Amino acid sequence: MNTKAAYYEGNKTFSLRESEYVPPGPGEVRIEVAYCGVCGTDVHIYHGQMDRRVRIPQVIGHEASGTVAEVGPGVENVAPGDRVVVRPLQPGEPAAVDNACTHIGQNLKFIGIDTPGAMQTWWTVPAYTLHRLPDAVSSRDAALIEPLAVACHDVRLSGLAEGEHAVVIGGGPIGLLIALVSQRKGGRVLVSEVNPQRRALAGELGLATVDPRADDLVQTVGRFSGEAFADVVFEVSGTAAGVEAMTKLPRVRGRIVMVAIHAQPQPVDLFRFFWRELRMIGVRVYEPEDFDEAIGLAAEGRLPLERLITQVAPLERAQALFETIDQSPAGMKYLLKCS
Question: Which neighbouring-strand residues pair with 6?
C-alpha cells in the first residue's frame, strides 16, 4: 500500500517520506486521510513564521477528511469504516482563566501545528475530535468542513439575525464562507474585496460586492443598507485598511467581529465605539456545535463548497502546491489528496 507523508523541513521545503504507523492507544483512532486542505496557517508555517512552534521536521495540516481504519481501547463514538472529519483541538488541562472555554484554553494544543498533522496517509488522533459524515457529503467537500466550522462559529457569535445587514471585509476563503453562512441565515451580505478574481467569484455565488479601492466603502454600505448601515461587520482582511474601515460601517449599537489575526497592534477609532455604542467581538476557531452545523449545511447541498476549491494535488506534489499558492493571490482553497 502506498503510504506517504509530507514533512515540513523548514526553509520553505517539504520532503516526502513514508507515513509513520502510530497504533491507536486508549481513546485514540487511526484514520486513513482522504483529503487535507491547506490553511493560511499552513502557509505561515511554510514561510518559516512559526518555526519556534512546530517541531521540524513535522507533518502539518489540520483540515482533514478520512475514514476510520482502527480504533483504540474504549472508543465508542466511531467504528472502522466510518467517514469522518477532524476537529483538531486538544484542550489540555483546564485553567481558571479559561472561563470553561476549553476550545481556546490556556493549555490548548492545535493538532497539526503543535502535534503531527494530516498531510499523510495515516493519522492517529483522539477519538473525541471526530465527527461522522453523512453520505451526502463527499470526502473532497468534507475537507472544507473545518474552515466552514470557523465561519459557523463567527456568524453564531456575531448574533446575526435574519434580515440584518452584514459587511464582510476580505473575500478570501474564510471571508466568503462567512458571507455564505450569513446569507444562508437570512442576512443581507456585502463583501468588500480588492482582488478582482475573488470579487468575481463572490458575485457568481450570489453575493453583493464592492471594490474598496475604486468605490467609497462608506457610501456603498449606506446605499446597500438604505442608509441604515451595517448591523454586523466582519473584519477578515487582516489589513490596516480593514481595521480603519470597520468602525466607519456599523449603525448605532452595531457589532464588529474580529476574525483576522493581527500580529501587530493596529490603531482603532475608539471614539466611534463611544459615539455609536458599538461592540467588538473576538472570535477564534470553533466548538463542537459549529462542526455539527457545518456538516449539516454541507449535507443540505445549498452551499457551493466545490466552487471554492481551486486545485487538488496528490500528496507527492505538496511542495509544488505551496509554491503555487504563493504565486496565486486569487486562489481560494487548495487540497492535498492523501490516499
Answer: 16
CATH number (domain holding residue 109): 3.90.180.10
Q: Which residues touch 21 (CB under 8 Å, ≥6 apart)?
A: 3, 122
pTM exceeds cut of 0.90 = yes
Do 22 and 80 sit in the same domain of this protein? yes
Domain range for 263 is: 151-282
Q: Tens digits of per-residue pLDDT, 9-19?
A: 999 999 999 98
With b meaning 16 or more CB within 10 Å and e meaning fewer, what string describes 16-31?
A: eeebeeeebeeebbbb
117 Ramachandran zone, left/alpha/beta (phi>0; psi -120 to 50):
beta
Percent residues over pLDDT 90 in the chain:
98
Is residue 85 within 8 A of residue 145, CB to CB? The reply is: yes
Cell of 163: 434580515
On whether both 204 and 161 belong to a single domain, the answer is: yes
Whether residues 275 and 332 fall in one domain: no
Give how many domains the chain has, as a whole number. 2
Cα 70 to Cα 22: distance, rounded to the nearest angstrom: 10
- What is the distance between the alpha carbons of residues 305 and 288, in angstroms, rounded to a whole number? 20
Same-domain check for residues 101 and 53: yes
Side chain identity at residue 33, one-letter code: V
Q: Are residues 132 and 155 in the same domain?
A: no
Q: Is 129 among the residues known to form the active site?
A: no
Say whether both 238 and 172 belong to one domain.
Answer: yes
Residue 112 and residue 35 share a domain? yes
Pairing relationship of beta strands 58-59 and 28-37 according to DSSP bridges = unpaired
In angstroms, what CA-CA distances link 13 with 8, 121, 250? 6, 19, 43
Contact 145, 291 (CB under 8 A): yes
Is the pLDDT at 1 greater than 80? The verdict is no
**Identified catalytic residue from 13, 44, 239, 262:** 44
Cβ distance 314 to 337 under 8 Å? yes
337: Cβ contacts below 8 Å, ≥ 6 apart? 34, 35, 312, 313, 314, 315
Let me know if 47 is a catalytic residue: no
